Amino acid sequence: MAPETIDVLRSALPLPRIEDARRILCVQPHPDDVDIGVGAAIAKLARLGVEVVYLTVTDDSVGTLDRGLTPSSLAALRREEQEKAARVLGVKEVRWLGYPDAGDYSEHAVRQDVIRAIRQLRPDLVVTVDPNLPYESHPDHLRCGRATAAAVLLYNFPHIRTDPAVDEAFTPYAMKGIAYFHTAHPNAYVEVGEEDWQRRFEAIACHRSQVDGPTLELYKFYFDLKAREYGATAGCERAEAFRVLTPQMMHCFVDAARI
C-alpha cells in the first residue's frame, strides 16, 4: 500500500521543536494572553535559557466592568501587571505597540510593526494566538494572529519597508516558524513540570484587574484538565499545546491544516 500523502509530507517537512529555539518573540493581543495561554511553557523555556520577548499589540484600555476606572488608568495598570507577570516567568523584555483595545486600527499597520520587531530581534520562532480558532470573535485576537502570521511569511522581503534604520541594517535569515497557542488543532506539545506549572498561575495572578479569585480557581481546574489531556497525547503528565508551521507551509499549501 502506498504511504499516505500526509505521512510523506511529515517526513519530508519536519516541524521545528519549540524547545530548540534560542530566541522567541511572543506577539499577543493584550497583556495576559500568553501567560494564560501557555505560561508554563514560557516559564520552562526561559528557565532553559531561551530568550523570550513579549510584544503586546493593544493597550487593553477597555478591559474592565468598572466605570470608575478610566481607560488611561487601566492601560497603565495593565502595563504594570504584565511587567510583573513577565518577571515571574523569566521573560527578558516586554514591548508595547499601544493600539486601542477593541478599537479601529489597521491590521496592515500591526503587520509592519511585527516585521520591524522580527528584523530587530531575529527570533528563531514567533508565538501568537491562532486566528483560525473556531468561533473566535475578539477582533484584537483575529487581527493579531493574522498580522503576525503575515509578518512571519513576509519579513525577509527587502521591498517591504518598516523603519529605515532597521530595514537597512537587516539581513535575511531563516526563521524556524510560527507556533500558535489558543489553538483547536495542536500538532506540537511542550512538557511542563510542577515548578513551571505553578509559575503559570503565579503569573496569571499578577493580572489582578482581569482575574479574580474564583476565575483563577476555574482556570486552575480547566487548564489542568487540558494539560493532562495534552500530556496523554504527548506521553507525559502535563503539556501545553501549540500548532506549529514553518513559513513554507503558510502560503498555497493545501495540507497545512493536516500537518
From TrEMBL:
<protein>
    <submittedName>
        <fullName>PIG-L deacetylase family protein</fullName>
    </submittedName>
</protein>
<dbReference type="InterPro" id="IPR003737">
    <property type="entry name" value="GlcNAc_PI_deacetylase-related"/>
</dbReference>
<dbReference type="InterPro" id="IPR024078">
    <property type="entry name" value="LmbE-like_dom_sf"/>
</dbReference>
<dbReference type="Pfam" id="PF02585">
    <property type="entry name" value="PIG-L"/>
</dbReference>
